[in-house]
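Entry 12.
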Amino acid sequence: MLILGEKYKFTDLELKRLNKKFDIIETLVYKDKTPVDVISDIENELNSNSVKVIVLNTKVKVDDEIIKYLTNLKYSDVYNKVKIISIEHFLEQYLFKCYIPESNDDLHYLDDIKEFNIWQRFQKKIVDIVAMIGLFLIWLLATPFVKKKIKEQSPGSVYYKQLRVGLGNIEFECNKFRTMSEDAEKDGIQFSSKDDPRKFAFGDIMRDTRLDEIPQALNILKGEMSLIGPRPERKYWIKKDFESAIPYYNQRHVIKPGITGWAQVMYPYGANAEDARQKLMYDLYYIKHWSLWLEIKTIFKTIGVVFGRKGV
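Predicted 3D structure (tokens):
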């Protein structure tokens, strides 16, 4: 795999996944190089390695000679197995996420991510109803044990309610089992982290197994959430960090948020704006490429996460 340019910087997790598909991954930086040198570098890579894919990952103007060379390369008898693909299409086909432009001048993006149609909403509604029934049964069975553990380790309320942003940027009250101390935000609003010291021991277990999310079955019943969708965030963080740092962030609000989601099973725990950007790429892929199969695939990956399977 040969990457032309550095418009998008691949994460370590992505490179690890790509190494399962490509034995060698090379990046060719051609800024400030002559077209002849760039073409020569590409030829060297093609001759020395079995290049299967060339990824066009550039944000600088490409010389006409290079464009002509790449166009002819697609129909070359010598390199007829080389696939040339843009970074935008590459991310969707190989990493199952959507590229997010770094600026607001790519307005067609607003039309790429659309709300679900009637048929998609009907299918998701069926999934949500089935999931809600199952979650209510788990909730009923788990509550006595959860109450007992919370009383032992962090006396206080069993449930925790917090305003989150959902469909159409409208806030709703999200329900969870409490996993942190009652005074967790005595020093102000904070991001929760993987090893957050404000969590008590059983609260940590509930987060790892996602048991704390079970009471959100009530949010599904009220029509505020779905089983699967983008993770609902607090308006404070959206206004303070995400909207200003991530173009098109609010595109994720064209559908209902979810208890679990494609981003949550494809990206590790995140606690900053860059993590939010990475997760948004997966959320937008889910919205753009939604199918019943993707819904089912997300459910099975979530089950894998709950039971401790890594590398999802």
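Annotation: The chain has twelve helices and eight strands. The chain has a mean pLDDT of 88.
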